[in-house]
Amino acid sequence: MRKVFAMLFLAIIGFYLFNTFALIPFGKNKMNADVAASYLNSGVQKTGAVNIVTSIVVNYRGFDTLGEVTVLFLAATGMGALLFRKKPMQRSRQNASVIVKTGARILFPLIIILGVYVFVHGHLTPGGGFQGGAIIASGFLLMFMSYRTYKVNHKVLSLFETFAGTSFVLLGLFGLIWGTSFLANILPFGEANTLFSAGIIPLIYIAVGIKVGSELTAVLDTMLKTVK
Amino acid sequence: MILTILEIILVVVLIGAALLAVWYRDLVAAVIASSVVSLMLSIIFYILQAPDVALTEAAIGVGLTTIIFMIAIRKTKRFEE
Amino acid sequence: METVLNIIGYTLTSVGVVFLFFGALGILRMPDVYNRMQAGTKATTLGAFGTILGVGFINPEWFFKTAIIAAFILISNPISSHALARGSHKIGIKLWQKKDIDHYARAEATLQEQEGDGE
Question: Per the UniProt record, which residue ranges are transmembrane (chain B) (predicted)?
Fold first, then answer.
């Protein structure tokens, strides 16, 4: 009986999803064209960011980004609360070979630089805070996997995270004080297509990148430490 | 034309990998299949000219999620009953 | 100048594509895990290296970036395949039946004899 209900439910959901998406050809734009056109046409003048996706994520929909960052923070906190262990166990029984260790030591700074590049240049090239943060976390993951005793200081991580989150909210409040609304772009735009342009967008993306990177690193470290 | 054929191949591989991810009883294999889904999705996003989303999908879907699942599997059980 | 660069670039790219094809063929045709991994790493590393550097020669303004990507592949690809091969050897995946020399196991044994048990 339950299976019948489940299949009926799936069929109803599938029917409505199909009806929603059937009219849109794959990969073509059939959505409300006015919104997209206005973003594309006036986005660069209004926000100063050449990358339209960044200008939407950080400027037009900046408040949503704050919510997303908060969700990630809650996930990391919940994971830490759930898996907290007073005496952390050893990470793995096997030692990584010399080749892996040396390679990880060479690659780690390069990966961190790539992550920082991705979130600093978020308003110019594809990428941004979330992507850069994930790349940084994967760099730390490489170190965790190749060195059994590699430790990150959780105090430093939470300090970074607090700093980044606070600066995000403070930037938004500055917009409320000196500008028109929360997260209003109060700094001068500068010349488009250069690194120091687009007002507060790069600052916010740097904050998001640091926050996401430290949160994901903390999640990975917590998970790796709790051996059964 | 070539792009359309490539898209069709990618979507077929994506659906196949998604079905395999559900079908496998070995959870490690299922996780690898789901990371293949993410990889295909990332290439499709790139073809559809959304490099931002493609980068996110590649970094988080292929890299971090797979690793987190792997760690969780190593700490619990490998096979589904 | 431009034609010379183009010729170099297209040659490198074609060589790379040929090696990538051999890598794919090797993954399909080789008998066991280690052989497949070797085909999928050696051939693909050279193939990707050639292709990416060739693109850099065709578009000279991209050369710096492509060189960085090529160097990254040159470092990371062998390391990851080494780690994979070592892991599969450690969990006891058998060699191909027609192959009876296992250098890695022998080297590991002598290494452990030399070092004792501590690390």
Answer: 6-24, 31-48, 54-73
Q: Give the nearest chain B residue to A131 (CA atoms).
A: B56
At residue B26, what are phi and psi to the nearest 5 degrees?
-80, 115
| Out of A99, A106, A107, closest to residue C82 by CB | A99
| Angstrom distance (rounded) from CA A173 to CA B6 | 47
CA dihedral for B46, B52, B55, B57, sign (positive or negative): negative
User: Are A100 and C82 inside 8 Å of each other by CB?
Assistant: yes
The string of pLDDT tens digits covering residues A136-195 is 988 888 888 888 777 777 788 888 888 888 888 888 888 778 777 777 777 777 776 777
Query: Do B and C touch, counting CB pairs below 8 Å (3 needed)?
Result: no
State yes or no: pLDDT of A86 exceeds 70: no
Write down the pTM of the prediction. 0.80
Name the nearest CA neighbour of A44 among A33, A35, A54.
Answer: A54
Query: Comparing C-alpha atoms, which of C3, C19, C4, C80 is closest to residue C52?
Result: C19
Interface of C with A (CB under 8 A): 72, 75-76, 79, 82-83, 86, 90, 119
List chains touching B (3+ CB pairs under 8 A): A
A113 near C CB under 8 A: no
Counting Cα atoms < 13 Å in the Cβ hemisphere of B34 gives: 19
Under the banding of pLDDT at 50, 70 and 90, the label for residue A50 is: confident
User: What is the C-alpha to C-alpha distance for residues C44 and C22, in angstroms, rounded to an integer?
Assistant: 8
Angle at A135 (CA atoms; ends A133, A137), nearest 5 degrees: 70
